[in-house]
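Task card 7
Instruction: Convert sequence to structure tokens.
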Amino acid sequence: MKNANASEILKFFSEHYTRKRTPWNWIVEKKNAIRPIIIDESMAAFEKTKKIDKPAYYTVTSYEQLSRFNIAGTDYTEPNAVRQYINDFNVDLPIFGYRSVLDRKPDYLKPVLKEFKDAYIKINDSTTEQDLLVQRTILDSDIYYTYCIEKWIERHVAISTKDTFYHRFSVHTVNNRHPEFSYDFPIAGHADDMPYAFRGTLFYNPKTVWEKKDSDKDHALAFKIMNVMQKLFTNFIKHGKPVHNGDPMPESRGQTPMNPV
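Output:
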């Protein structure tokens, strides 16, 4: 790396990086690392894997793009900016290696972008600014997070001999407060499951949740979801599946997302 041409690395990165996280983000690691994690580029390493013989558990939310880290300091929730984004609709599609092509806005991509827009964006006389924010959040989440995760899951399932579980998390309480939305809107952004699963204190104190669980319905819901999330993960660790003997929710298909994919 000492003799590498930095400009060539930057050129490669700008050509293959779509301004958002993708499964092709690269990790550079010394070959003589004491405890190496990844030597190959992640997708290349996955291509070489012929079989996985351990159960796996993936989680994601419908609003992955909505997080304090992604939208902080941006115009993401500014109504006029969101409307302009929808009007222009030149989104970065998650197509590996096509960054410069997408930036040129070629005519042949217009029908593709129109399909994306028609599928996600619904505007009429009663559409509110928050409706538009929700639509944009779901679109961005699907393209830049969920699509990449689900493509990875597809590859994982194809070569796995064990069960693979996948759930989408969505709840809105004091543990993952988003001022853009009211509490009765069941929204959860990127990493919002962490305070529930691991009792993190980054955004709210779990001790306060416990103290107010019997006097405030929002804290009561937060406490309930904390128990559910912790049970899902501990079940998976102990039994190889998030739901065990109907705990913490029914196991029958259609009532819970906790079935192997």
